[in-house]
Design goal:
- There is one protein chain.
- By secondary structure, the protein is an alpha+beta fold.
- The protein folds into three domains: 116 residues, 3-Layer(aba) Sandwich (Rossmann fold); 64 residues, Dna Ligase, domain 1, CATH 3.30.1490.20; 123 residues, D-amino Acid Aminotransferase, Chain A, domain 1 (2-Layer Sandwich).
- It contains nine helices and 13 strands.
- The strands form three sheets. It has a five-stranded antiparallel beta sheet. A four-stranded parallel beta sheet has the order 2-1-3-4, with helices on both faces.
- Helix 5 packs antiparallel against helix 6.
- It is globular.
- The two termini are 15 Å apart.
């Protein structure tokens, strides 16, 4: 019998999805792709394959999980299997440069960005920016490498120090600093290619934006210190850090929907920041999306349940085709 296969490398992030599968009585299996063997001569099982490989896998000791996943997705797609968040989606997950190029084709504004490899080139690239700027890793997740600098001297001191942390792919991005009138960003969630909800994220305590409970560990993973915080120096709010926006309606949602549909993405969270003029800048696409349980409980909307329902629907489609036209099942 076909089932749902979840490709991932982080057990903690899958726990709420397991609970949703159990609640809906959906058959599933997990493929933990940190290391292993991929036999291209073999034939993959029937089912629906959901790719949740993360760009930050190397921070959990799974350095080559994305590379193994890329080969696995190629194998699955070669055999016509239904892959949710396919090989193209993984390509975008692993490179912000790829993201920005793809977003621009849909008229979606991104911050001005320069890429550099090598410490000296990072310093030289930053000289193209006259005001404050941010550095970040091209292959990131969890806010890896995010630092705010107000001067080139400060960047030089950081790059030449032992504190400098290179991106796992060697590419550092230097990006214009978008100053928001209030310390928050917006994350727009999609499931099955359709808008689910938008969440407001308070950045006054730093820029760790992973919404899952397992990520909320104080400053342990905060990528910037107090003197270099991404947020301005506004006092920290006592309001919840994550809050779902009721009735969110903005033209950017349709542009995002078209973008993900054209790039093999069915499930994603896309983040943007708004400047003082009201201009929106999209800066991150998360195809391995997580949700904040407190915000969802407050709003009565649950992302992992929506994912499980969507995957269950995709599995039901496959089963109907197998019953009706078994010879076509491999093409789904």
């Amino acid at each position: 019998m076909p089932k749902i296969h979840v490709i991932h490398e982080n057990d903690a992030w899958v726990e709420p999805l397991r609970a949703a599968f159990d609640e809906l009585a959906l058959p599933f299996e997990e493929w933990f792709l940190s290391e292993g063997v991929l036999d291209f001569a073999g034939v993959p099982p029937q089912g629906v394959f959901y790719n949740r490989m993360s760009a930050s896998s190397h921070t959990r000791g799974h350095r080559y999980g994305p590379e193994l996943t890329a080969g696995t997705l190629a194998w699955l797609q070669q055999h016509g299997r239904r892959v949710v968040n396919n090989a193209r989606a993984l390509q975008l997950e692993l490179s912000k440069l790829e993201q920005y190029a793809a977003l621009s084709r849909y008229g979606i504004r991104t911050p001005r960005t320069v890429a550099a490899v090598g410490r000296g080139h990072i310093v030289e690239a930053a000289k193209r920016f006259s005001g404050s700027f941010i550095t970040k890793h091209n292959r990131a997740g969890k806010g890896l490498g995010v630092q705010l600098f107000h001067s080139h001297d400060a960047l030089t001191a950081y790059v030449e120090s032992d504190a400098f942390e290179d991106s796992v792919d060697g590419i550092t991005l230097i990006q214009e600093y978008i100053r928001a009138p209030e310390p928050y960003i917006t994350r727009v969630e999609f499931v099955g290619g359709e808008f689910l909800y938008a969440v407001r994220v308070d950045t006054s305590l730093g820029f760790l934006l992973c919404p899952a409970d397992v990520c909320q560990v104080g400053d342990a993973f905060c990528p910037v210190g107090e003197s270099n915080a991404i947020a301005d120096t506004a006092p920290a709010s006592t309001a919840p850090r994550f809050s779902i926006i009721q009735g969110f309606d903005h033209p950017i949602v349709e542009r995002y929907r078209q973008f993900i549909a054209a790039n093999g993405i069915a499930i994603a969270g896309i983040e943007f920041i708004t400047d003082a003029r009201g201009e929106i800048y999209t800066y991150d696409v998360n195809t391995n999306t997580n949700y904040n349980p407190a915000a969802e409980a407050e709003a009565g909307i649950y992302g992992m349940r929506a994912i499980a329902r969507y995957l269950g629907q995709e599995l039901a489609k496959l089963q109907r085709i197998q019953r009706r036209e078994p010879e076509l099942a491999d093409a789904v």
